[in-house]
Amino acid sequence: MIGVVGGYGDVGAVAAHHLAGLGLGQLRIGGRDIAAAARLAESLSGAEAAQVDAGDEAELDRFAANCRIVLNCAGPGRTIGDRVARAARRAGADYVDVGGDEALAARLDPTALRREGRVAVLSAGVQPGLTGLLPRWAARRGWSRIDGLTSYFGLRDVFTTVAAMDYLQAVTEGAGRSGLVWRNGCHPATTVWQRNAVVPLFPTPSTSLAYLTPEAERLARWLRLERGTWYSVLCGPRITGALAQAPGLAPEAGARLLREASQFDLSGQPRFVLHLLQLDGLCQGRQATRTTVLRGSGNAALTGVMAALTVAAVARDAVPPGSHFAAEILDPDATIDRLVLSGAVDFLTETDGPISALADCEECTL
């Protein structure tokens, strides 16, 4: 049995459908709205529905009972904390979290998990998650040394209420450092803004902000980078302003502002997730600069499939006991290949040269 908490939400429904297609076992779709859970379960062969409030320990225990794996797609993450993870452990189940960051990792006991033969995989979504996995995939393609990394990540999609609340909590609690870049093994206080910038393949105008996340710091150390810059690209006039205003509002008002702004910017436009990744260093015996372009069909689609593939890796015993971040434990080649096959990634290519040269890449155009 695989239980999906928040299984009928935007991300959870995608994950559930993909898991059903993988044939890993019976699914239990859970959430506070039992009618919504039942509707989704009816569309999935053999699935069952269960009412569960992620804030209610007794309901979580009933939900996790008899589950081999519990996937958490509910939020906001900082509100739920480790409640779902603890319920999974009490039930003797493995645990996968679409979100789950350093705060949650600090509350888990990897030694106890290893002793019990149990697995917990966090950040099994897009950012963090795929944004840490794609560089590992690219780094395996002939590189003997990587000196520099430049990343641009952005999307155009609707901010769900849960996603907006998670974003605001992360900003408020400092999960990442705005304006910082990686230089010579550390992160100097260098503010890097590119307002109204023209970033190849992204809509114009856009605003790019250097943003150093814990995931990026771990990646920089793993690659032994001399320099690294990660940009968040804000696409759309309304969302750019809303992202600046929302942290100063009450959480509910801020989340509503982000959702309404994202809906306005999306109106009549296609959804996309776009990651541009440039590596500089020694590749196949020579100095080289190469750029990877990954485009997804939408945030929920990409996040849901990424979560399902993480569950599949756990179910197939491809993840050792303990606590892990998805980007650091999943097989990069197998995971990226399966994301492409699923259709959640609708374009993936590598080119010689820097990101700036993508302006002349006709096949890369959105």
UniProtKB/TrEMBL annotation:
Positions of the Saccharopine dehydrogenase NADP binding domain: 4-100
Cross-referenced Gene3D superfamilies: NAD(P)-binding Rossmann-like Domain (3.40.50.720)
Protein name: Saccharopine dehydrogenase NADP binding domain-containing protein
